[in-house]
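Quick one from the shared queue. A colleague (R.T.) flagged 8-oxo-dGTP diphosphatase as missing a structural entry in our internal table.

Convert sequence to structure tokens.
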Amino acid sequence: MTAPIPAAGTVPWRRRRGQLEVALVHRPKYDDWSWAKGKLDPGEEWPVAAVRETLEETSLSVGLGRPLPGAEYAVLDGTGQPATKEVRYWAAEATRPAGPLLNEIDEVRWLDVVTASDRLDYARDRDQLRALVRADNAGTLTTWPLALVRHAHAVGRGSWSQDDRLRPLDPAGEERAAAIAPVLAAYGVKRLTSSPSVRCTDTLRPFAAQLGAAMRTKEGLSEEGYAAEPARAGRHLERLLERGAPAALCSHGPVLPTLLAMLLARVAPDEPEADLVEDALRAAAHAKMAKGEVLVAHLVGTGPNARVVAVERHLPSRPRAF
């Protein structure tokens, strides 16, 4: 069976005079109104494609919010053969006006949700709109991301004779570190916290260079620091929850289950898919996150009121959303 054609997009949203509005795009080739979306480039990750396609089709620069329901439907592939397209969507708050349109879109229109529902040409596109409205009614549409990252693949312990904290990434790990950078950028991450071990700091270094931001290293997130005083790792996570700013934290396999358990305790119980979110966090903690994995928790609130409303797992091969 032919694999589905992967595509990604967003539902850009804003508030105008207190009213929720969403942005639809018009494609003159098909004379239809839909969401900004497009196919993944070879080797591109889903969230990276969603942000790129939104910029290309609407000229809106967005950071991804919580994931929305996806869609699968029949299309013709490049050779004219029947195929299935799989599209993954995210909510994306627009914070700046759009620039000029450049690609195959001839109009972007901001509409209230009732008018948007009537204007959409495909019934499947209303699934994302309904989910966005439900989240807005529940007060969980405005979220902030916290990305937990397990360091990418490093030189093996058996072939390294120096201090283990200096053990570097191997070539595969370096390649994955470069791939992680645009994923973190897609979610608008601005703050970086890491174990001081080289294999962790080097995992975030490409993104730190791209962002032009300092990386804060915390001994409590290292394997050695965690073994000496396990509670320190949790305190570093608590500080990020208190700030409530888009952040990434990079640590090690033995440390991350403690942090995942802390997030598990903060899953919003009223979320329709709370069970799936909890299962995803338990699975990541039980089996340990894969090396080079990025787990994105979408939160509302800060400090003691911070609650996890959605979780995505982005592995070196393929991400999953819950």
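Residues 5-136 form a domain with the Nucleoside Triphosphate Pyrophosphohydrolase fold (CATH 3.90.79.10).
The chain has a mean pLDDT of 94.
Added to the table.
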